[in-house]
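Tokens for chain A. Residues wanted.
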């Protein structure tokens, strides 16, 4: 649809006359962020039309000329922000350059003239622009600024590989954690940690792990340099480093306890996703993109992404009008519950509330390594963390899978063009439009980062068919059993049995079902991801091997009990 629907209200607005029908109709299509910003455009346009046609503009125009110019400038800033967001960060500089040439030949815009009147008025414009964007769009300024602040240390983090740290958390936690890690069998399994060959089921079953795989593995990640990086970059105050460490480890232990003993969606699955993400984060592309705060966010998101899962899917909860479905209005029911339960655990006790120890006033001088003087003071890292955790966990809802595939394909296309050397040109540093676009580009950077993290977590959540054969087979048996238990309950309740949950049908078509899942769900998602992250080609190769296995099982009509006969 067109980004603007023109009418008397908008045509009467002086600050929007410059964007005519022809320009709006020929606007370049967006990339990965099209869907979110298309709704923003519609929302902003409808509200502006209501305001303008309802006499609001006439009231403003009756005020002092300077105030009128300020509001006109603010509306133009908002319009520029939304337009830039539609284009995507890799298209924005070319758009700005084109707009700069167009405006230099025409009557100067109110906003451009107004910005020349001094820093005080520029600040007023920024405040008004923030209000407009927060009220009429889904833009998240605080999260975008927090992301920018955290990303200032990205190069430092990429150049400082994790090392084993000797800091202690607290005596009781350290003693129990080190006992787990030093257990000979645990040490043997941990040699494969951070690789597709890590066996989370075997690790979680060890007596020394005490049913707390998330706490044990999270403790190891923290001690391998993550805590040191968070402290060095000022994300956590050095004076609170010990307390943050202790709260985070205790939180992971509390998260372990909240997982149910269901066949598949248990703490072992969460640990498996956590370690798969550790493998993905080791890739060259991800190391260049991810900050220490991002790494922390990924670890926590993996840990909490299925917490409290009842072993029944969203469709079952909706069909039975479960209290959770009522609470969350049938929208991403389980995923919303996972998030709410996790934040409740943080807030219940200070001993588990690591979140409150993240900086809400992050300033440049808190960063101990490198020059980050371009950052604005007082940036809220808590808001960025919360926004990221929410987006990443909601992204694990399979109802959003098709949207993930589409966005990832567009993102991969952008990366391909970038690697092939397509260059759209840099915006001149002296251009006023560069100043106008700063906030839009910051928001675009946030959305691109979250798209990357959402996609990789979703991939890790679905990674079972791409794992080495013995691990793949174990997880396949478990997920089938959980699905079939749901189908058994649906049959007993007289409900229609959900797809893939009929035990009688599934027993006869295991191989066929796995082939379809690989061909229509996993492969279309993993292929563009491997284009972005070449190291994931290993997972794509393993996926092909497992598909060959299932094709052989289907061709030979091997019975289910014989397929899984080798499992303990």
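Reply:
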């Amino acid at each position: 649809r067109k980004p603007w629907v023109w009418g008397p209200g908008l045509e009467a607005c002086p600050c929007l006359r410059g964007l005519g029908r022809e320009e709006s109709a020929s606007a370049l299509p967006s990339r990965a962020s099209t869907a979110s910003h298309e709704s923003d455009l519609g929302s902003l346009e409808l509200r502006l039309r209501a305001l303008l046609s309802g006499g609001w503009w006439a009231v403003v125009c009756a005020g002092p000329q300077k105030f009128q110019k300020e509001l006109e400038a603010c509306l133009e800033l908002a319009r520029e922000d939304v337009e830039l967001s539609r284009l995507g960060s890799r298209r924005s500089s070319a758009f700005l350059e084109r707009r700069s040439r167009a405006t230099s030949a025409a009557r100067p815009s109110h906003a451009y003239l107004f910005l020349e009147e001094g820093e005080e008025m520029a600040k007023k414009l920024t405040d008004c622009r923030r209000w407009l964007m927060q009220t009429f769009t889904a833009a998240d300024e605080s999260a975008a600024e927090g992301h920018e602040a955290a990303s200032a240390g990205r190069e430092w983090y990429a150049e400082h590989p994790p090392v084993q740290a000797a800091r202690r958390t607290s005596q009781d936690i350290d003693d129990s954690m080190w006992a787990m890690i030093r257990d000979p069998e645990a040490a043997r399994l941990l040699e494969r940690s951070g690789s597709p060959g890590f066996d989370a089921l075997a690790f979680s079953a060890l007596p020394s792990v005490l049913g707390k795989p998330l706490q044990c593995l999270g403790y190891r990640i923290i001690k391998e340099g993550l805590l040191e990086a968070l402290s060095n970059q000022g994300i956590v105050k050095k004076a609170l480093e010990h307390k943050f460490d202790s709260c985070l480890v205790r939180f992971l232990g509390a998260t372990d306890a909240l997982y149910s003993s269901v066949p598949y969606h248990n703490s072992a699955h969460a640990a498996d996703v956590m370690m798969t993400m550790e493998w993905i984060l080791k890739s060259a592309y991800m190391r260049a993109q991810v900050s220490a705060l991002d790494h922390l966010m990924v670890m926590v998101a993996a840990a909490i992404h299925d917490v409290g899962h009842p072993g029944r899917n969203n469709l079952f909860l909706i069909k039975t009008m479960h209290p959770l479905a009522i609470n969350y209005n049938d929208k991403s029911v389980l995923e919303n519950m996972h998030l709410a339960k996790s934040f409740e655990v943080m807030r219940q006790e200070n001993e588990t509330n690591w979140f409150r120890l993240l900086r809400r006033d992050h300033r440049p001088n808190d960063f101990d390594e490198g020059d980050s003087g371009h950052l604005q003071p007082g940036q809220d890292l808590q808001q960025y963390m919360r926004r990221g955790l929410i987006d990443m966990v909601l992204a694990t809802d399979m109802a959003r899978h098709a949207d993930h595939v589409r966005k990832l394909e567009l993102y991969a296309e952008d990366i391909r063009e970038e690697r092939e050397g397509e260059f759209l040109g840099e915006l001149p540093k002296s251009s006023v439009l560069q100043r106008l676009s700063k906030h839009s580009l910051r928001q675009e950077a946030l959305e691109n980062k979250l798209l990357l993290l959402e996609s990789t977590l979703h991939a890790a959540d679905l990674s079972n068919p791409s794992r080495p054969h013995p691990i793949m087979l174990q997880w396949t048996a478990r997920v089938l059993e959980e699905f079939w238990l749901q189908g058994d309950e649906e049959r007993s309740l007289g409900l229609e049995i959900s797809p893939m949950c009929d035990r009688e049908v599934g027993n006869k078509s295991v191989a066929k079902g796995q082939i379809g899942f690989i061909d229509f769900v996993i492969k279309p998602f993993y292929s563009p991801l491997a284009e972005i992250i070449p190291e994931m080609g290993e997972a794509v190769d393993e996926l092909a091997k497992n598909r060959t296995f299932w094709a052989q099982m289907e061709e030979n009509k091997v019975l289910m009990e014989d397929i899984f006969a080798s499992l303990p």
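The first helix runs from residue 8 to 11. The radius of gyration is 26 Å.
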